[in-house]
């Protein structure tokens, strides 16, 4: 469980660091997508300490911030990437359009995981359940879900699309869904954002 929390924190931190955009001189669709990424970054800044147990758990705040992310995900995100929109200060890579279906899939993952996080917001944190009941983690729903997440990083290594079922996500601890959301962000930035 500790490794899961550390991984979630690291993924979110790298996403936040990667999303620190310099908007200087941005116009049109490039500015619109930078503004959308800034909104996602701000939501992640609120969510990360909650998921790490550093600030009080508040399901309403989690749901609200998940909705902010969802408002900028899926088609709302891909619309902000018309082909060839690489004008400075854009940090988009041309590979976005070379691998458009992969980019769309990542945008849809972000949408699904943000909606799943909003639905799972009342479930609390996996680490809280772990400290309250070791047996829950051994054989209950949380043990099954988190165990499948942890096995060899399978879920993080390309098995994410199988976990986009909202019913499944809604039953998971919120920090487990947040981990998948963070991973979708990190994967997209690694593949499609120019590193500074």
UniProtKB/TrEMBL annotation:
<keyword id="KW-0249">Electron transport</keyword>
<keyword id="KW-0408">Iron</keyword>
<dbReference type="GO" id="GO:0042597">
    <property type="term" value="C:periplasmic space"/>
</dbReference>
<keyword id="KW-0479">Metal-binding</keyword>
<feature type="signal peptide">
    <location>
        <begin position="1"/>
        <end position="22"/>
    </location>
</feature>
<dbReference type="InterPro" id="IPR012127">
    <property type="entry name" value="Cyt_c_prime"/>
</dbReference>
<dbReference type="Pfam" id="PF01322">
    <property type="entry name" value="Cytochrom_C_2"/>
</dbReference>
<dbReference type="GO" id="GO:0005506">
    <property type="term" value="F:iron ion binding"/>
</dbReference>
<dbReference type="GO" id="GO:0022900">
    <property type="term" value="P:electron transport chain"/>
</dbReference>
<keyword id="KW-0732">Signal</keyword>
<keyword id="KW-0813">Transport</keyword>
<dbReference type="InterPro" id="IPR010980">
    <property type="entry name" value="Cyt_c/b562"/>
</dbReference>
<dbReference type="GO" id="GO:0020037">
    <property type="term" value="F:heme binding"/>
</dbReference>
<protein>
    <submittedName>
        <fullName>Cytochrome c</fullName>
    </submittedName>
</protein>
<dbReference type="InterPro" id="IPR002321">
    <property type="entry name" value="Cyt_c_II"/>
</dbReference>
<keyword id="KW-0349">Heme</keyword>
<dbReference type="GO" id="GO:0009055">
    <property type="term" value="F:electron transfer activity"/>
</dbReference>
């Amino acid at each position: 469980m500790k490794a899961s929390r550390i991984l979630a924190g690291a993924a979110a931190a790298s996403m936040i660091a990667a999303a620190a955009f310099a908007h200087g001189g941005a116009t049109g669709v490039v500015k619109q997508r930078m503004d959308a990424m800034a909104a996602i970054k701000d939501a992640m800044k609120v969510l990360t300490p909650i998921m790490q147990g550093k600030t009080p758990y508040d399901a309403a705040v989690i749901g609200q911030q998940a909705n902010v992310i969802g408002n900028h995900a899926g088609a709302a995100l891909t619309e902000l990437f018309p082909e060839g929109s690489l004008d400075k200060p854009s940090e988009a890579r041309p590979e976005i359009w070379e691998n458009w279906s992969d980019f769309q899939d990542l945008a849809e993952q972000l949408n699904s995981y943000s909606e799943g996080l909003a639905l799972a917001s009342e479930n609390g944190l996996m680490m809280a359940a772990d400290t309250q009941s070791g047996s829950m983690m051994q054989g209950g729903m949380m043990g099954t879900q988190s165990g499948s997440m942890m096995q060899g990083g399978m879920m993080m290594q390309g098995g994410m699309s199988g976990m986009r079922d909202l019913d499944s996500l809604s039953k998971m601890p919120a920090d487990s869904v947040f981990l998948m959301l963070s991973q979708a962000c990190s994967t997209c930035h690694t593949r499609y954002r120019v590193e500074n």
